[in-house]
Amino acid sequence: MTRGKQKIESQRKNAEKNQKQKGSQLEARALGLKVVCPICKVQLANEKQMNDHYGSKHPKEMPPSMSG
């Protein structure tokens, strides 16, 4: 059985260990972005966003097919 300072240190360590890891929103966003425009290297979340991106930023180009 621990007493005094040892008990307080043990409680502090356990509290830190049990605390959830905090991640930034940028890290979560990076995990969600899976599609990259081959022309301008912009990261997009899905094929629909890629089609919209090509329509507005690269109107003369055809969007690549994502079935692969």
Poorly predicted runs of 5 or more residues: none
Helix content: 40-55%
Strand order of the largest sheet: 1-2
Q: Whole-Å distance between the termini?
A: 60 Å
Structural class estimated from helices and strands: mainly alpha
Quote the average pLDDT. 83
Describe the protein's topology.
Elements: H1 5-18, H2 25-32, E1 35-36, E2 43-44, H3 47-57
Antiparallel strand pairs: 1-2
InterPro entries: MBS1/2-like, ZNF706/At2g23090_sf, Znf_C2H2_type
Protein name: C2H2-type domain-containing protein
Region (Disordered): 1-28
Please, could you describe this protein's structure?
The protein is mainly alpha-helical and 68 residues long. Helices cover 49% and strands 6% of the residues. The chain contains 3 helices and 2 strands. It has a two-stranded antiparallel ribbon with strand order 1-2. β1 and β2 (43-44) form a beta hairpin. The radius of gyration is 24 Å and the shape is rod-shaped. The model has no long low-confidence stretch (mean pLDDT 83). Pfam families: zf-met (PF12874). This is C2H2-type domain-containing protein.
